[in-house]
Write a structure and sequence with these properties.
Structural class: alpha+beta
Shape: globular
Order of helices and strands: HEEHEE
Number of strands: 4
Number of domains: 1
Number of helices: 2
Helix content: 25-40%
Strand content: 35-45%
Oligomer: single chain
Radius of gyration: 11 Å
Length: about 70
């Protein structure tokens, strides 16, 4: 993890789970915890859910796929 990703993870106020290849197909779900976002992604069963940490400064960073 690079410093920006670490900073966003450590200061995250919420996490987003993003699915869809193009903006037209993209969906976004918001979660209070990283574990909840990962659980949502794992339920999709394809490993293509991108999990982002978002902080109150508006910074975000891709943390993992689930």
């Amino acid at each position: 993890m690079n410093p920006h990703e670490t900073f966003c993870l450590n200061t995250a106020t919420h996490f987003t789970a993003i699915r869809g290849r193009t903006p037209r197909q993209r969906t976004r779900e918001q979660f209070d915890t990283l574990d909840a976002a990962k659980e949502y992604g794992e339920k999709q069963g394809d490993g293509k859910t991108m999990i982002y940490a978002v902080n109150d400064l508006g910074n975000s960073a891709h943390i993992c796929n689930a």
